[in-house]
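Limitations
The structure tokens in this dataset are predictions for the assembled complex, not deposited experimental models. Users should treat interface geometry with appropriate caution, especially where small molecules or nucleic acid strands are included. An illustrative entry is reproduced here so readers can see what is and is not provided.
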Amino acid sequence: MKKIVKKHPLAIRWFHWINFPILGVMIWSGLLIYWANDVYKVGFGDKTLVKFFPQSFYDAFHIPFRLAEGMAYHFVFMWFFFLNGILYVFYTILSGEWKYLLPNRQSWKEAWLVLLHDLHIRKTKPPQGKYNAAQRITYTAIIIMGIGSILTGLAIYKPVQLGWLTAIFGGYKMSRIIHFALTIGYALFFVIHIVQVIIAGWNNFRAMVTGFEVIKFQEDLMLQPEPLPVPIEPEIPGVPQVITTEEKIEDEEIHE
Amino acid sequence: MSNFISNLFRSNRNLTVDQLIVKKTLVSFFLLFLFFGGCVWAWKWLRRQPLDSDIRGGIQQPIRDVLNTNELIFNKIFSKNHLTKTYSVSQAMKRVRFNGNIGLGNDFDTSAWKLYVIRKNGDTLALKLDDIKKLPKVDITFNFKCIEGWNQITHWGGVRFSDFLKAYGLSEESQMKYVGLVTPDEHYYVGIDMPSILHPQTILCYELNNRPLPMKEGYPLRLIIPVKYGIKHLKRIGTLYFSNNRPPDYWAERGYDYYAGL
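Predicted assembly:
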């Protein structure tokens, strides 16, 4: 037997899919801006491990010499990013969805079990629920990162009028570094997210689009989530009621 | 197979669980594809829009409209009391980054230079450098921010712009909305909103590191306006005028935000 079980509310699904193209435009326009002063690299001493970004990367995505366009689009689509994010946060608070999304006391311990399980080190499955412990931590972290992007973005955008904000993030240069690092964080999140969705499979992915999951269960096992519904015959006046087996037997006994 | 289609129009009550799963999945994915299709369509529409007419080119009109709206929104938090952070003179760079020579033509005649100030009534005030130097001198060491993304702590000296307006009886002009600045060769020009140019840290600058401005930094007189990106710090001011409409702006015409305020 199969059963349709509601998983994700419509609002959450909309926030999720709307965020996808918006974040895409924000990262693209951010790259157009970053190119004009592309000074960040990861390394130690004189040795550079990763340079942000190699020329081939810029060429592949037609990044060079588009600073003005990048800034213009960044400062338009920031509104959509901000609005979608703020509506999502309000919705999760008001609807009570936060209860499934925020990490709880067990989450920190359980997240290890998820990691070990995902890396095929530990066989037993950690508790899943709507979101497992690792998902709770990750999806909460991504919201904090989003808030960080907006605040560091403002700190770079208005470093004089919002000088106090710029100071909180350690100045203009540091705000810019954090803003950039958060974006690299989104890119890494995106890759892991896609891999996890592929591993989790169709039923899980479909739930993010349709809102429901399909649960399979066997009729004759104790495992079934609730008793099978007994078919109910419609009550039609004048037609004798269907009688249960027990009642039938009683009737027969009386006749004898 | 055609059942998939016909099931779409049947009531959910008449469907088996399997049929219902297929129906709901098809409908939801169709809506998702419709949404992504809508996004692609909206993006193509935006990219096709005519370039802005008010600033003469640069960026699609709807984008420019939002940038102008951003200016109105963020002007609400603008205050002349919000000062850019200042540093000690010893923290200032000895060698200042040189990043643009537009408007600094080689045939510039230093001895003939004058600052022409066009008054509201059309009269022109012609000022020599000494006319400006005789006003009270201020200096500022601040983090100069280029629109490209780099920044440098630099030390500049000159006359507070608001003091200059007062000294030359330009208070009526300071009631207007914008100031326009043009280089002597007229190749570089910027427009600046009055609140920003009246900001106490905005200066008509003639010194860098306590020395006269180098030629490539805009000798003899340039603008230093810490509440704006570097593109507005016009080097070598030739003409200065006032307007209630936005004066032409070199970089705004190339797609940058007109306001460019920090």
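Some entries come with short summary sentences. For this one: The mean pLDDT of chain B is 91.
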